[in-house]
Each structure stands twice: as C-alpha cells, then as structure tokens.
Write a structure and sequence with these properties.
The complex is a heterodimer of chains A (115) and B (114). Chain A is mainly β. In chain A, 0% of the residues lie in helices and 49% in strands. Chain A contains no helices and 11 strands. In chain A, the strands form 2 sheets. In chain A, strands 2, 4, 5, 6, 9, 10 and 11 form a 7-stranded mixed beta sheet that branches. A 4-stranded antiparallel beta sheet of chain A has the order 1-3-8-7, with no helix packed on it. Chain B is mainly β and 114 residues long. Chain B is built from no helices and 11 strands. Classes of the chains: A mainly beta (115), B mainly beta (114). The interface between A and B is medium-sized, with 30 and 28 residues.
C-alpha cells in the first residue's frame, strides 16, 4: 500500500538549470497539493491541483514555477532557471476529496539544492 | 495574512517529564492540525481539531483548541525518547468544507533525553 511517492528525493542543480519534481498520489486520490519548506521554517502552500486542472495556485511564485497534474502520470512541479533561494524541501500531499477534514497525506519530500 | 506562531521552537526535556507546546494564530479558524516530522521524513498527522474546546488524546500526547483565544496546545506527558521529533501546528485557511491551504508554524524541535 504505497503512500504518496515523490521523486527524486534529492536533487542538485546549478543556477539557471531546470528542476522537475514528481509526485504520485496515493491510490484513489485525485487531489494533489504542493508545499515548500525552507530551512528552519514551516511548510508553505504553493498549489492545489486536480487531474488536468489547477484549482488554486495562490502560493506559487509568479515566475519560473509551474505545476501540472496530467490525466495520466504523476503531478510535476517544474522550476525553471533555478536560483539559490529555491533550495528547499518540496512536499506533495494528496487527498481523496478536497482536504476532507485534515486527511492530507504527505510524501517524504524532494530536497532541492541549488549550487 | 495569517500568522501561526509556535513556542518554544526548541525543547529539550528529560524522559518522564511533562511539557506543553503552544500554537497561536492570528485569524479566525475552526480547523487546526498537529503534525509530527522525523528528520528526512514526511509529515505524520497526529490530531485534527475542528471546533472550539476540542480535546484529543493519543498515548502521551494531548491536543486542545481554544478558538476564542486562537490558541492550541500540545501537551506531552511523561516524555519518552521515541517522542523526539519536530512538531508542527497548521491552521486551515481554505474556504469551503475542505482543508488544503494550511498555514504552518515553524515547528517545535523536541529532544527527549534520558
């Protein structure tokens, strides 16, 4: 019974490169959320997606960041032209319904380091 | 903008002792969550508090919510080493019935020492 699967777990990029983070939700879950955790900080909401739809991207930086959740395959968080400030842990969560009173199941995160 | 403040941010306590972690938040919300995170791991949901006066207990941990004071507490009773982790509170800012836009505190890093 796989939980929320994220990969890669660790990613190193040089400034200006692109980072792609993938998230496969739990089986039966159609809602995906991305959060970012900066060092020594709490998680911050970035974006909420359902299959083929972005529901709420109010937490996403306006430039360089994009997210998708295609009909087939994992959700992808894409960061173009990475900068050092993008270094963080990126967590994906999923739920069966919209949130459903706290039943957000988190993955183990993808830790991005920008050199 | 919603602010969620936890204190203390670091807590070192001896096994067998009791302590309370506090979570204050700045905007009205009826939904508050406590999570546990072990190093390099995902967040594990501990408690979901959905109404004023809610109290939930699981083992040595007990969480409560006072929406009027905008305060939640996580009380640790007779701490054991296995409780060492970082504990986050999170407040729901989503509109509607579901929760997804959680605002997290910075976390309380708990170390239980023999």
């Amino acid at each position: 019974n796989a939980g929320v699967m994220q990969n890669p777990r660790h990613l190193v990029r040089r400034r200006g490169q692109e980072a792609r983070l993938r998230c496969s939700p739990m089986k039966g879950h159609s809602h995906v959320y991305w959060y970012r955790q900066l060092p020594e900080e709490g998680l911050k909401f970035m974006v909420y997606l359902q299959k083929e739809n972005i529901i709420d991207e109010s937490g996403m930086p306006k430039e360089r960041f994009s997210a998708e959740f295609p009909k087939e395959g994992p959700s992808i968080l894409r960061i173009q032209q990475v900068v050092r400030g993008d270094s963080a842990a990126y967590f994906c969560a999923s739920s069966r319904d919209q949130g459903n009173t706290g039943e957000l199941f988190f993955g183990e995160g993808s830790r991005l380091t920008v050199l | 903008e919603l602010k969620v403040e936890q204190n203390p941010l670091f807590l070192s306590m001896q096994e067998g002792k009791n302590y309370t972690i506090y979570c204050n938040y700045s905007t009205t919300s009826d939904r508050l969550y406590w999570y546990r995170q072990d190093p390099g791991k995902s967040l594990e949901s501990l408690f979901v508090l959905l109404s004023n006066g809610a109290v939930k207990q699981e083992g040595r941990l007990m969480a409560s919510l006072d929406t009027k004071a905008r305060l939640s507490t996580l009380h640790i009773t007779a701490a054991v080493h296995d409780l060492s982790a970082t504990y986050f509170c999170a407040v729901d800012m989503s509109s509607g019935a579901g929760s997804y836009q959680l605002t997290f505190g910075k976390g309380t890093k708990l170390s239980v020492i023999p």
